[in-house]
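Team,

Forwarding the record for the chain on the shared tracking sheet. I've put the sequence and predicted structure together so nobody has to dig through attachments.
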Amino acid sequence: MRQGDSVPSGFTVEQLQAQIPRLRRYARALTGSRDAADDLVQDALERAWTKRALWRPDSNLRAWLFAVMHNVFVNGVKRTRPMASLDALNEDGSAEPVAGNASAETDATLHDMSAALAQLPDEQRRVVLLVGLEQLTYSEAAEALEIPIGTVMSRLSRGRDRLRQLLDERNAGRNGLRRVK
């Protein structure tokens, strides 16, 4: 592949390269490991390139690439344990904090969020990450995961509710408070 090369279906190498940071960030969130994420992105890009004739020029390339990566992940290619940690991820997928001087409170919040996300069922975590972290629309997430938009909305709602519950429990435990029902 050379810069400027396009394929019969219409996307260019530059268009693929522009999506790599987002793919890396989502892959890192899925796998919990930089190395496994890089392998997943590489495998997804290879699959996308070999299957490029399946991409419809009138569709969203970003959502299509997320669908390809999701399928590679689900099929178990280079699969590792699900998400041991989720650091603050920069646009390039690196794990350094976004803010230069992250406070202890910010670190604790990121740790709590990481732990809470790890406790979500895979199908809820994927939707929460695609919509919340990657800011895909519901229809783009539905396309990427190959599920109906109503299922995206349902999983997102249940995932957000469960995240709130888990974070509330962690905060109550940290403050030494018990929630009485």
